[in-house]
Amino acid sequence: MAGFTEGVVMNSCPDDDRSQCDNSSEMTFVRLLSPRVNDVPTSEYDHAAHCMIYCRTNKAWFGNTIKANIMMQFRFDGCIGFPGGAVEANETIVMGLNRELQEEIALNLDKYSIKDSDHLVSHIYKERNFVLHFFIKSVTEEDFNEIQAAGLTSEFYGTEVMGTVIPPLFTMSNGISGLPNFLANMFIGNAKQQLLYALESCEILSKTEINEAVMKSKIIKKQNV
């Protein structure tokens, strides 16, 4: 397999864990260095794939600039994550992801199907021999709104998927409202790590902006204990 670089994800639980997320847990994920999703041998691992569908914007809101809208989900277990899920044994990673997106958000695969080239990063959860693949799909704002609306017609809406969530990608003048408050929520698996990685990789937010929001979110969590 391709090489690794170590990373630790805080306050998370595995994607296939159907119990409530443990807000005090710590799990180790390893980022695969290879950018190609097909470099990971599927037969040796269980796999899940998720996708960040987003659009660029330039809107003003209470003195803040909203640079992008990102589609996330509020899940049945009370955690926040990205649409997607487990890949079945007879599927490629992309096939499984497209099936999950069609099921969860009624994605129109004729217009918006995910391709190998949309892959951003993969992480391995070593304790369970489980690989989580992450893709990104950039669309227009009009298409983003269409995709969100279609999600209301999904067969899993109101059961597995309780609603869509757009993260506030700004920090308000009080230093807490906006992204820091959002990051203080509970996320499934490594969804928070995936979000932060994508924000920097896609140059939606700077590394400094991301780090400041993360630090403030940790303060918020301590205050809420």
UniProtKB/TrEMBL annotation:
Q: Which one GO biological process term can you cite for this protein? A: mRNA catabolic process
InterPro entries assigned: NUDIX_hydrolase-like_dom_sf, NUDIX_hydrolase_dom, NudT16
Q: Does the keyword RNA-binding apply?
A: yes
Name the cofactor(s): Co(2+)
- What GO cellular component entries does it have? nucleolus; nucleoplasm
**Keyword line:** Nucleotide metabolism, Nucleus, RNA-binding
Molecular-function GO terms, alphabetical: 5'-(N(7)-methylguanosine 5'-triphospho)-[mRNA] hydrolase activity; IDP phosphatase activity; phosphodiesterase decapping endonuclease activity; snoRNA binding
| Residue ranges of every copy of the Nudix hydrolase domain listed in the record | 44-184
What reaction does this catalyse? a 5'-end (N(7)-methyl 5'-triphosphoguanosine)-ribonucleoside in mRNA + H2O = N(7)-methyl-GDP + a 5'-end phospho-ribonucleoside in mRNA + 2 H(+); IDP + H2O = IMP + phosphate + H(+); dIDP + H2O = dIMP + phosphate + H(+)
What Enzyme Commission number(s) does the record list for this chain? 3.6.1.64
Q: What class of enzyme is it?
A: hydrolase
Location of the protein in the cell: Nucleus, Nucleolus; Nucleus, Nucleoplasm
Q: Which family does it belong to?
A: Belongs to the Nudix hydrolase family. NUDT16 subfamily.
This protein is called: U8 snoRNA-decapping enzyme
